[in-house]
Amino acid sequence: NATFQIKVPAARIASLRTQVGKQVTLGIRPEALQIANGSTSRESSFDASVEVIEPLGSEILLNVRCGTNDMVARVDPSIRVKLHETIRLALDPDRLQFFDHKGELAI
């Protein structure tokens, strides 16, 4: 899969050591993604294309694509983006979720 790289927080590395050589699934909740700003680290941000814009009043859900990966970002309703626009998203690395390859067990 075309991918992006995110630095895993040191606190999470210990739990992932048992997974060396195994495939894991990364889970990113919509509230863990925001529009990046000038102070956002390159280690915790990536470019994505806006595929769907869903205004919900108090928030906007953006369906985005990064390579072959689809995800949803929950952003402030004041954010203005256009369909198919490339945006930079910031990820809160402390909110990363990891699962076994089958997606059944949280790591």
Account of the protein in words:
It is built from 1 helix and 7 strands, in the order αβββββββ. The chain has one helix at 10-16, and strands at residues 24-27, 33-35, 45-55, 60-66, 69-75, 86-91, 97-100. A 5-stranded antiparallel sheet has the order 2-6-3-4-5, with no helix packed on it. The longest helix has 7 residues, at 10-16. The two termini are 22 Å apart.
Termini separation comes to 22 Å
User: Kindly state the mean pLDDT as a whole number?
Assistant: 88
How many separate helices?
1
Multimeric organization: single chain
User: What are the secondary-structure elements, in order, as H or E?
Assistant: HEEEEEEE
Low-confidence stretches: none
Task: Please tally the β strands and state the result.
Answer: 7
User: Could you say which structural class the secondary elements and strand pairing correspond to?
Assistant: mainly beta
Q: Widest sheet: strand order?
A: 2-6-3-4-5
Q: Share of helix among residues? A: under 10%
Shape: elongated
The gyration radius over C-alpha positions equals 15 Å
What share of residues are in beta strands?
35-45%
Biggest sheet layout: 5 strands, antiparallel
Index terms:
single chain; 107 residues; mainly beta; five-stranded antiparallel sheet; two-stranded antiparallel sheet; 7 strands; elongated
Structure summary:
By secondary structure, the protein is mainly beta.
Please render the helix and strand layout as text.
Layout: H1 10-16, E1 24-27, E2 33-35, E3 45-55, E4 60-66, E5 69-75, E6 86-91, E7 97-100
Antiparallel strand pairs: 1-7, 2-6, 3-4, 3-6, 4-5
